[in-house]
Amino acid sequence: MKSRLEDLVSTLQAASSLEDLQVVTEALRDHYEVAHTVYHWVNSVGERFGAGTYSAEWVDRYLEKDYLRTDPVIFGCFQRFTPVIWKELDWSSKAARAMLQDAQQHGLGNQGFTIPIRGPNGQFALFTMNATADDDAWETFVDENTRDLMIVAHELNKKALEFENWGQDLQSPSLSPRELSAMTCLAKGMNRAQSAAELNISEHTLRVYIESARHKLGAMNTTHAVARALSTGIIIV
Amino acid sequence: MKSRLEDLVSTLQAASSLEDLQVVTEALRDHYEVAHTVYHWVNSVGERFGAGTYSAEWVDRYLEKDYLRTDPVIFGCFQRFTPVIWKELDWSSKAARAMLQDAQQHGLGNQGFTIPIRGPNGQFALFTMNATADDDAWETFVDENTRDLMIVAHELNKKALEFENWGQDLQSPSLSPRELSAMTCLAKGMNRAQSAAELNISEHTLRVYIESARHKLGAMNTTHAVARALSTGIIIV
DNA sequence: ATTACCATCCCCATAAATAGCGAGGGTATA
DNA sequence: TATACCCTCGCTATTTATGGGGATGGTAAT
Question: B205: which nucleotide lies closest, measuring CA to C1'?
Answer without folding.
Answer: C8
